[in-house]
Amino acid sequence: MEPMVFIDVDRCVGCFMCERACALARAIEINVNFKLAELVRPEDCTGCGACERACPYSCISVINHGVNISERAKVTLSRVRRNMSRRLVTIDDDATLREASKVMEMEGIGSLMIGSHIITETDVLNGWFSGKTLVKEVSKEAITIEGKSTVDEALQVMNEMNIGHLPVIEGNSIVGMFSIRDALRSMSVTSINEGLKVRSARKEEKARVHAMEVPLLSTGSTYGEVYDVLKMKGIKATIVGDGVVSIRDITKGVAEGKSQNDQVEPRTIKHFRGEDPLHAVIGYMMQHNVRHVPVIENDKLLLLSIREITSRTVWIHAI
Questions:
Q1: CA 36, 40, 42, 44 torsion: positive or negative?
Q2: 61 and 116 belong to one structural domain
Q3: 164 secondary structure, DSSP code
Q4: Tally of domains within the chain
Q5: pLDDT tens, 217-236?
Q6: 190 and 214 together in one domain
Q7: In the chain, what are the helix, strand and coil shares in percent, each to the nearest 5?
Q8: Are residues 273 and 183 in the same domain?
Q9: How many other CB atoms are there within 10 angstroms of residue 212's CB atom?
Q10: What is the C-alpha to C-alpha distance for residues 123 and 137, in angstroms, rounded to an integer?
């Protein structure tokens, strides 16, 4: 059963007490034009009754019979709007791919918006290696998701469409960007609740569970050689020498004016062991802003990626 909130507008004076009481769900707000309380996000209402208790004029009534407040709160916290980045960086469609790569490098992001279109690091590299020069030659119509959707629903879209960024829609406007990294951050704070099909990194899970074999390239490999391997294998990073080279590293090379025949410079990233706890690896990835880490298992060098972690994780589903 859904909770129901009734507001007596004849008694409401817009004192903001209910809005302050609804700090978790943010389901109720004061309309600044009419100075009246409104239930603006009914899907996020947990039925806790805090707004009713806080109202000094007794103009709010909450009916929550049969509502599991704690379960609804977990769903509310799993909304895409709660976990997205509100930084939307744009670029003109007449900009060059090199200019786009410089903006991505400077902002530390993997996508840029051009109106209703999007360009990602992969688009920049596909264009660069095929001889294209302008953003408008490789940008595409953005696949979007509503802010009220859950992280689970966003990940399903990402995995089905093989994309890593989803512009977030509220009403008719794009209000933020949800990325694989945002999903990982949500995973690091999501608690376990089997009844809701929530599954975060369990303490007993090991890094080996999600680590995968990737091509091992020799030190001295060029940007072109590494990109060809990534494209052929359909992966976002691989191991070069004893370090890691990802799509982002190649995009950085484009921004710095490198050519396809220049040697890549692998990043030195901490190596984990297969038996290391997965939650510890996730913490390291979040702290150091990396999307791939090497994992040693039975004397083999594997690679653990954010996408691999999130693609095998079950998240909160709507009630």
A1: negative
A2: no
A3: S
A4: 3
A5: 999 999 999 999 999 999 99
A6: no
A7: 35, 25, 40
A8: no
A9: 11
A10: 10
One-letter amino acid at 268 equals T
> Residue 15 — φ and ψ, nearest 5°?
-85, -5
Question: CATH no. for residue 115?
Answer: 3.10.580.10
Does a structural domain hold residue 251?
A: yes
Verify that 113 and 155 share a domain, yes or no: yes
Residue 306 belongs to what domain range?
A: 207-311
Q: What are phi and psi of 306, to 5 degrees?
A: -60, -45
Angle between helices 151-161 and 180-189 (to 10 degrees): 140
Residues across the chain: 319
Residue 74 belongs to some domain of the structure: no
Give the DSSP H/E element, type plus range, for residue 129.
Answer: helix 121-129
Is position 40 within any domain? yes
pLDDT digits (tens, 9 = 90+) for 174-221: 999 999 888 877 765 544 334 444 444 455 789 998 899 999 999 999
The Cα 132–Cα 119 span in angstroms is 14
What would you report as the CA-atom Rg of the chain, rounded to the nearest whole angstrom?
23
Residue 291 included in any domain: yes
Instruction: Fill in the amino acid letter for 289.
Output: N
pTM equals: 0.80
Q: Which amino acid is at 17?
A: M
